[in-house]
């Protein structure tokens, strides 16, 4: 077996995207399809480069209550690209009911009732956060249909516990931490009080690559409406920040 083949068995390839804002200006006669075309291109690139998974950093949808057309477009693209008989080389090791919610018995690609060829993991942003009756996000509609794996929800914003999604490919161990959007001032206060618990894997913690995705202000727009990097746990190897995407 060549070195390249050995590397491929252990190399976890992730396509990262964020702030897709599906449905942005969807009624505009010129730009109405732009967000959907960009998202389609992202998923096609994941296929082309044989990514093991897609990681989305929040604000998949532009509106908290996306139109039926927008939901239909999103589900159509995810079904077309992510479903199929292709083999997924990632093993899910943590408890799906903790990772994704008590109603989930499997990560979607291990669900015996559906065929997933390209897994998508995502958190919510400030545009598509859970709200209303049932405290649901539009992302929940995608997740309950088996199209995505929605993680990083918090139930208590003043006392947050973040448990990682544990994934393995060959000899590579990934601890994927997610924190969906919380109002910056509120999260800043919670972190300053050290009321955020980051739960590392119980066994062989030094063997895991620790990746965190969050959707918050990284740049200071005021004394407390951002998350300073020193608030984040020092054991993290890589942090993916969603939310800030202005060109200035």
* SSE arrangement, N to C: HEHEHEHEHEEEEHEEE
Largest sheet: 5 strands, mixed
Number of helices: 6
Q: Tell me the distance between the termini.
A: 49 Å
Structural class: alpha/beta
Strand content: 15-25%
* Order of neighbouring strands in the sheet with most strands: 3-7-8-10-11
Number of DSSP-assigned strands = 11
Oligomer: single chain
Helix content: 10-25%
Question: What radius of gyration results from the CA coordinates?
Answer: 18 Å
Report the uncertain regions: 1-6
| Shape by Cα distribution | globular
Mean pLDDT: 93
Overview of this structure, please?
The chain has 248 residues and is an alpha/beta fold. Helix 2 packs parallel to helix 3. It starts with a helix and ends in a 6-residue tail after the last strand. The radius of gyration is 18 Å and the shape is globular. The strands form 3 sheets. A 5-stranded mixed β-sheet has the order 3-7-8-10-11, with no helix packed on it.
Please outline what is shown here.
The chain has 248 residues and is α/β, with parallel strands linked by helices.
Name the features:
single chain, 248 residues, alpha/beta, 5-stranded mixed β-sheet, 4-stranded parallel β-sheet, 6 helices, 11 strands, disordered N terminus
């Amino acid at each position: 077996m060549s070195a390249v083949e050995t590397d491929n068995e252990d190399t976890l390839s992730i396509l990262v995207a964020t702030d897709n804002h599906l449905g942005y200006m969807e009624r505009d006669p010129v730009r109405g399809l732009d967000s959907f075309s960009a998202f389609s291109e992202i998923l096609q690139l994941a296929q082309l480069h044989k990514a093991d998974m897609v990681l989305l950093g929040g604000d998949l949808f532009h509106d908290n209550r996306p139109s039926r057309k927008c939901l239909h477009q999103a589900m159509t693209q995810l079904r077309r690209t992510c479903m199929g008989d292709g083999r997924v080389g990632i093993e899910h090791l943590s408890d799906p009911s903790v990772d994704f919610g008590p109603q989930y018995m499997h990560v979607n690609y291990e669900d015996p009732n559906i065929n997933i060829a390209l897994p998508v993991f995502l958190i919510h942003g400030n545009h598509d956060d859970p709200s209303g009756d049932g405290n649901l996000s539009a992302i929940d509609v995608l997740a309950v249909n088996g199209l995505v794996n929605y993680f990083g929800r918090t139930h208590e914003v003043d006392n947050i516990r973040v448990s990682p999604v544990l994934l393995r490919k060959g000899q590579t161990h990934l601890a994927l931490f997610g924190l969906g959007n919380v109002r910056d001032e509120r999260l800043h206060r919670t972190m300053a009080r050290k009321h955020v618990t980051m739960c590392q894997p119980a066994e062989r913690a030094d063997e895991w690559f620790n990746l965190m995705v969050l959707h918050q202000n990284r740049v200071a727009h005021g004394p407390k409406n951002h998350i300073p990097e020193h608030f984040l746990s020092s054991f993290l190897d890589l942090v993916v920040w969603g939310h800030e995407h202005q060109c200035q």
